[in-house]
Amino acid sequence: VHLVESGGGLVRPGGSLRLSCSASEFTFSNYEMSWVRQTPGKGLEWVSYISGPGSVIHYADSVQGRFTISRDNAKNSMYLLMNSLTAEDTAVYFCARVSHEGATFDYWGQGTQVTVSS
Amino acid sequence: QTVVTQEPSLAVSPGGTVTLTCASNTGAVTSDYYPNWFQQKPGQAPRALIYSSSNKHSWTPARFSGSLLGGKAALTLSGVQPEDEAEYYCLLYFRDAQLWVFGGGTKLTVL
């Protein structure tokens, strides 16, 4: 299993950014996926979830209405469109595979840094 | 707001045993919350250790074990090794609210 995030960078407050997660070595469409972020001060925070077909989506309250998760199973990829970014969104963003057992995240990417600053 | 609480830090001697716990402000942690445990070392992504309270992944060393203890989820390390020094996070799944919540993490120091 291999997960690689990309798309992070420096963005100004109020700006937007689109993260990508490229998956390989497993049947991507068969797995639910999530985004998790990590800030130095707050530790790990679950951000969003998407089902295998992409028909079921959930968000943490902190990003609801600002972030949009999506996936393209033909491209073995998942995305996170982040709008109206604030300094509180500064974090390393990880994509993670949701295991078929136990509501856990069994495999993680290495993360991509998002910095929101003027 | 759902808050999951862990010990901020613990210390253990090599070869010793230590138990980390995970509590929820919503009440007792049960198997319904599918308690998970992760290990994270500096500069690395979290690594899954335990799922559904006590189940190990294929890569989880035998010295790690998970349980439910006194209304909390627990992670016990027996025969601690120097390489076990890391941050440990628990994760609970709240099915009704359809969200996951991480604990604040426990920094484990192997003295």
Please give a structural write-up:
The complex is a heterodimer of chains A (118) and B (111). Chain A is mainly β. Chain A has no helices and eleven strands. In chain A, strands 2, 4, 5, 6, 9, 10 and 11 form a seven-stranded mixed sheet that branches. A four-stranded antiparallel sheet of chain A has the order 1-3-8-7, with no helix packed on it. Chain A is globular. Chain A starts with a strand and ends with a strand. With 111 residues, chain B is mainly beta. Helix content of chain B is 0%, strand content 52%. Chain B is built from no helices and eleven strands. The model of chain B has no long low-confidence stretch (mean pLDDT 96). The chains are: A mainly beta (118), B mainly beta (111).
Topology:
The complex is a heterodimer of chains A (118) and B (111).
Chain A: E1 2-6, E2 9-11, E3 17-24, E4 33-39, E5 43-50, E6 57-59, E7 67-72, E8 77-82, E9 91-98, E10 105-108, E11 112-116
Parallel strand pairs in A: 2-11
Antiparallel strand pairs in A: 1-3, 3-8, 4-5, 4-9, 5-6, 7-8, 9-10, 9-11
Chain B: E1 4-6, E2 9-12, E3 17-24, E4 36-40, E5 47-51, E6 55-56, E7 64-69, E8 72-78, E9 86-94, E10 99-102, E11 106-110
Which tags fit this structure?
heterodimer; A: 118 residues; mainly beta; four-stranded antiparallel beta sheet; 11 strands; 53% strand; B: seven-stranded mixed beta sheet
| Number of DSSP helical runs of chain A | 0
| Largest sheet report of chain B | 7 strands, mixed
Distance between the termini of chain A: 37 Å
Strand segment tally of chain B: 11
Query: Greatest interface and its residue counts?
Result: A-B, 22 and 24 residues
Oligomer: heterodimer
Q: What is the 3D shape of chain A?
A: globular
Q: What's the gyration radius of chain A in Å?
A: 13 Å
Structural Rg of chain B: 13 Å
The outline of chain B comes out as globular
Tell me roughly what share of residues is in helical segments of chain A.
under 10%
Poorly predicted tracts of residues of chain A? none
Estimate the mean pLDDT confidence of chain B: 96
Helix content of chain B: under 10%
Query: Largest sheet of chain A, if any?
Result: 7 strands, mixed
Count of distinct strands of chain A: 11
